[in-house]
Amino acid sequence: MRIFETHAHINSDDYKTDRAAMLQQCTQAGVERILDIGTDEPTSRAAIALAEKYPFIYAAVGYHPHDAETYNEAVIRELITHPEVIALGEVGLDYYRSLTPKKLQQDVFAAQVNLAAEYRKPLIIHDREAHQDCMDILDAQNAKKVVYHCFSGDVAYAQDVLEKGWFISFTGIITYKNSTLTDVVRMVPTDRFFVETDSPYLSPVPHRGKRNSPAYLRHIIEKIAEIKHLPPNAIAEMAWENASNFFLKS
After folding, report:
1. CB-CB contact of 170 with 224 (8 Å)
2. Which of 10, 23, 105, 111 could form a disulfide with 36 if both were Cys (CB 3.0 to 4.6 A apart)?
């Protein structure tokens, strides 16, 4: 089983004491590609540094909605052309915590959607309780290559995302007893989904409550396989092909 981890925060301080050992565990678990995600300037630069150090790590750069107040377009323009940067993200809107004003979030998000189009980079979307505004901004900018990371919407919203040709990514949330995503997993076509851990957050069962790792992706893959009545190896390969085509082919 070869696995493409499409969203992890390997640059997080949660891994500062054992990052190399954790990454070795990931490769032993079949994780052959990892996309390390930036959420502001320091983490975006750290993601690039890790991608330069490890041949199986790629970088994404961007400003998370919680970090909208520090947004600097010049930084994105500098970093997005780095050869290890394969996507812009994570970017979007978060009305659940509203740590920054909604209007500022929207303006920063729209600016980054525009930059993704300018530099022909895929967009990794953070959308928490902001579904309609997220979609309106993406539509206004005519966004083409989009993945909704850690998808949290319902079946109707998933259908809207899919109808636009975009992708949906699943995390360990789908393994939780109170998950509302089973029907979404079931309806998403096998050529339109990715898998991710969002490490160090959202550890899947049976590791819930502990620090997450891309090495735990197998549990997410097995849950999707259970819901779709397909072999786990087949699900892993579908997710690998989907993500490779999306992120690594123009």
Report:
1. yes
2. 10
DSSP notation for 159-187: HHHHHTT-EEEE-GGGGSTT-S-HHHHHH
CA 46 to CA 54: how far, in whole Å?
12
Burial of 179 (0-12, 13-18, 19+ CB in 10 A): middle
What CATH number belongs to 3-248? 3.20.20.140
d(CA 21, CA 160): 41
Sequence ranges of the domains in the chain = 3-248
Q: How far apart (Å, rounded) are the C-alpha atoms in residues 114 and 118? A: 6
pLDDT in tens, 111-127: 999 999 999 999 999 99
Q: Which of 68, 66, 50, 42 is nearest to 8 (CA)?
A: 50
CA-based nearest residue to 232, from 223, 243, 241? 223
Smallest CA-to-CA distance from 25 within 188, 225, 153, 214 is with: 214
Total-model pTM: 0.97
